Amino acid sequence: MSLLAYDLQLSNVYKTYDNGTPAVIDFNIDVVKGEFIAFLGPSGCGKSTTLRMISGFETVTSGDLMIRGKRVNDQLPEKRPTSMIFQNYALFPHMNVRQNVRFGLEVKKMPRAQADRKVDEILEKLGLGDIAEMATSRLSGGQRQRIALARSLVVEPDILLLDEPLGALDANLRKSIQNELKLLQRDLGITFVFVTHAQSEALALSDRIVVMNAGRVEQISPPRELYTRPSSLFVARFIGSNTILPGTVREGQDGIVTLDTAFGRLAGANLAGIDAHKDRNMSIVLPAEAVDLVPADVSERQMQAEFGANAIPCTIETLQIVGHIMHMVVRLKDDKTIKVEGHVDKFRDRLKAGGSAFVAWKSGSATVIDG
After folding, report:
1. Which residues are within 8 A (CB) of 120 and not within 5 positions of it... i.e. 6 or more apart?
2. What is the pLDDT of residue 171?
3. Which residue has the higher pLDDT, 138 or 255?
C-alpha cells in the first residue's frame, strides 16, 4: 500500500524528556482514511503524549510522523491538517457559540461570508442552531462538548484528535455522546484518534484499539479480537474479564499448545505462533465468553468428546438471573473465582448454588501467551 493510502503513520516514534525519562518507546502504526483509532491504557502510559506528538504540541525525539504521506515532525500545530478536542473543551468564555465555532476559520483568514456558511452547516448538523447566539458559560456539558466538536470539524481536518473528551460528562450523557460521535464519524468519513482510559468507550467506538503500557504498545487489534484474543499478560489482565492459568509447555501440535498447570493438562490456541518449546513458561487466557459450566453429573465420555481435557472441578458460589442471562461465580480449588454467564434456559434447573460443576472450554476458544 502506498504512503498516500494512509492518513497517519508513526514509524519507530520515540519521545524522551530532557531528564532522560522515556514517555513513548518505538511506537508504530499505519492508519487508513476514515478509521476510528482508540489509544487505551492506564494513566502515564504515554497515550496522551502520543496524541500531542501527532497534533504538534509535543516534539518527536526520533522516528517519523507522517500525515497523508508527508513527514510533519517539525511542522507547527497550526500548519498540520489536524484538529484537537481537549477534555476541558477549551471554549472561549467571552464568545458565544457561533463565535467559538467560527474562530478556527478566522485564524485561517477565510472570507466572512464563506465562514458563516460553513458555521451554519456544522451547527445544523450537530443540532446547535437554536443556541448559536448563546454564551458558552450558560450551556450544559453535552452542549459544550458538541460546540468543541463543531469548532474542530468546521475547519475540515484530515484527522480529528480527541483527548478524553467525554471524561467530564455523567454516565447517561456520556453514552449518548458516544453514539453521536460514532455516527458522525461514519457520516463524515474523517479519521478519528481518540484517547481514553475507559475500556467501554474504546470497545464501543473504535475500529482498532492501541493498548499502551509504560510507553510501549502492547497490542493493536479490533475490539473483538482484543477482548477475546489478548496477546500479552498485561492486555489479558487489563481488558475484559479473563481467567489466566499459568503453566509450562507439555506439547504443541496443529496450533494447539498443552500446558501442565496446577489444574492438570490444559490447552489453548497458539494464535501468535510463539515458539512453544517444552517446559517454556506460558499461560492460558480464558475469556468469560469462552467458558462453559457443566453439571458434575455429566459423563466423562461426554465431557471428553466436547472439551477434551479442558475441565476443572469447581464449586458454584452464586447464581443470579438478570433478564434472560444467568450470572454465576464459581470457585476453583486454589480459591480462584471465575465469572461465567449464559442464557438462563441453558442452566436453569441444572445448576444450584453450593453445588459442584466443571469449568470447561474448547481448546480453540482459549489463547496461550508468553509468561
Report:
1. 129
2. 67
3. 255
Q: What is the pLDDT at residue 276?
A: 86
Q: Domain boundaries in the chain?
A: 3-228, 241-370
CB 303 within 8 A of CB 360: yes
* 119: its cell numbers: 458555521
pLDDT tier, 336 (very low <50, low <70, confident <90, very high otherwise):
confident
pLDDT band at 169 (very low <50, low <70, confident <90, very high): low
Report if pTM > 0.70.
yes
Whether 328 has a pLDDT exceeding 60, the answer reads: yes
Which burial class, exposed, middle or buried, applies to 153 when counting CB atoms under 10 A from its CB (0-12, 13-18, 19+)? buried
Decide which of 3.40.50.150, 2.40.50.100, 2.60.120.10, 3.90.1150.10 is the CATH code for 241-370: 2.40.50.100
CA distance 20 to 204: 36
Q: Give me 354's grid cell.
A: 453450593
What does CATH list as the number for 3-228? 3.40.50.300
| Per-residue pLDDT tens digits for 23-60 | 999 999 999 999 999 999 999 999 999 999 999 999 99
User: What nine digits make up the cell of 171?
Assistant: 454516565
Structure confidence at residue 300 as a pLDDT band (50, 70, 90): confident
